[in-house]
Specification:
Elements lengths: L11 H11 L1 H7 L5 H8 L3 H29 L2 H19 L4 H29 L2 H33 L2 H21 L13 H12 L2 H31 L4 H25 L5 H25 L3 H14 L5 H9 L8 H15 L1 H7 L12 H11 L3
Helix pairs in contact: 1-6, 1-7, 1-8, 2-7, 3-4, 4-6, 4-15, 4-16, 5-6, 5-8, 6-7, 7-11, 10-14, 10-15, 10-16, 10-17, 11-13, 12-13, 12-14, 12-17
Length: 392
């Protein structure tokens, strides 16, 4: 297929398949969130142990992004994707049969390694097939799918859990992986350009080392990653807070989670509009300031009980929505200094920002004491760091 292909041409089926592959990460993270308290009770485990199923997944995502990029450049786009989908299918089936929390954590790690293949390969294939303008439109569509999935996945997961139990959620994910394998085999072409240099381990490490020495790249990565640590603390702890502490049903929690995801989508669209009038760095500073402020209010509401459930919910909505001004502008800032070398950056910015995010989840988990603030208390500190960092 030509690089100048249009999203509305015969490549439409390919774009749809890429959209499905992009949903791997959000589906695997968000679909089982309403079931986390029930999983902890079934295994007789602590809240912290249950939250490690999320931490293990994010560790797998970060490591996978470091591996898949060089492998795709050397062996093509589809072989690593096949391998990742097989890993995902097997790990999802294993999670549905997990006899213990430790086994579930291990399956989640392997599941993330598989899910990462779909997320990385989809972006790479877009770069292979489309020119700059068309790729922007296609990537916008893929981002919309990623943003919509956190709204729909918890609702589907809570409905499935209420009918057949939490293990069927992972069975459904295994079926999803099998369907994606068939779609990849039948409808996705090999897009690795002929003559692409095959990277060696030495050249790959040299690229990553150069990025880590670049002050702007590290600064923007910390801005996005540390802001995201508050989001990860919310994802890993919110189901326990709202279901076990405030007494929401799993379906009620799913609606609340979806509402916050809708706020994030809306703020991302507002950010896109404001970029016509304001510099990305200015919007990033605004976003960090709002995020830190609402994080402090969220902690105050949690510790004092101010406003009860409604006070927590309102502050949390504003806290999550403000991330729509941080994530895209931090990513754009990290990419900007590299120009035509930007292709190497997404594979590094992802694991680098994930590393700073996932480091917060275990702390959040171990600080859970039954009070409604395992994640609220961690959020302001996570947001203050990037705010103080971004002063340009």
């Amino acid at each position: 297929m030509p690089r100048h292909a249009s999203p509305r041409s015969a490549t439409t089926p390919v774009v749809l398949i890429l959209g499905v592959l992009t949903a791997f990460g959000p589906m695997s993270i968000d679909m089982y969130l309403p079931a986390l308290p029930g999983i902890a009770r079934e295994f007789g485990s602590t809240t912290a142990a249950a939250q490690l199923t999320l931490s293990a997944f994010f560790v797998g995502l970060a490591l996978g992004q470091l591996v898949y990029g060089p492998v795709m450049d050397r062996w093509g786009r589809k072989p690593p994707l096949y391998a990742g989908l097989v890993l995902y299918l097997g790990a999802s089936a294993g999670a549905s049969l997990a006899p213990s929390m430790d086994a579930l954590i291990a399956c989640r790690f392997v599941q993330a390694l598989g899910a990462c293949a779909g997320m990385v390969v989809s972006r790479t294939i877009v770069r292979d097939l489309f020119d700059h303008r068309s790729s922007a439109r296609v990537l916008s569509l893929l981002m919309l799918i990623m943003e919509m999935t956190p709204i729909l996945a918890p609702l589907a997961g809570s409905a499935l859990m209420s009918v057949a139990g939490w293990r069927t959620i992972f069975l459904l994910l295994a079926v999803f992986g099998a369907i994606c394998w068939v779609l990849t085999f039948t409808g996705l072409p090999e897009t690795r350009p002929a003559g692409t240099p095959k990277p060696t381990m030495r050249t790959t490490l040299h690229v990553y080392a150069g990025l880590l020495r670049h002050r702007a790249f590290v600064g923007y990565t910390l801005a996005g990653g540390l802001a995201g640590s508050g989001m990860l603390a919310y994802i890993s702890g919110s189901s326990f807070v709202f279901i076990d502490v405030y007494g929401l049903t799993p379906s009620g929690y799913a609606w609340l989670f979806g509402t916050n995801a809708a706020g994030l989508i809306g703020s991302s669209q507002i950010n896109r509009y404001l970029l016509h009038r304001h510099a990305p760095d200015r919007l990033l500073k605004w976003g960090n300031a709002c995020n830190a402020s609402f994080g402090v209010l969220l902690a105050v509401a949690a510790v004092t009980g101010w406003g009860g459930l409604h006070g927590i919910a309102v502050c949390l909505f504003a806290f999550v929505a403000s991330l729509g001004f941080i994530f895209p502008n931090a990513a754009a800032g990290a990419m900007a200094p590299f120009g035509d070398r930007a292709g190497a950056r997404p594979r590094s910015w992802g694991p680098s920002s994930s590393a700073s995010r996932r480091s917060w989840a275990p702390w959040s988990a171990t600080s859970t004491t039954g009070r409604p603030c395992p994640w609220q208390s961690s959020s302001p500190a996570a947001e203050a760091a990037p705010f103080s960092r971004n002063d340009s």
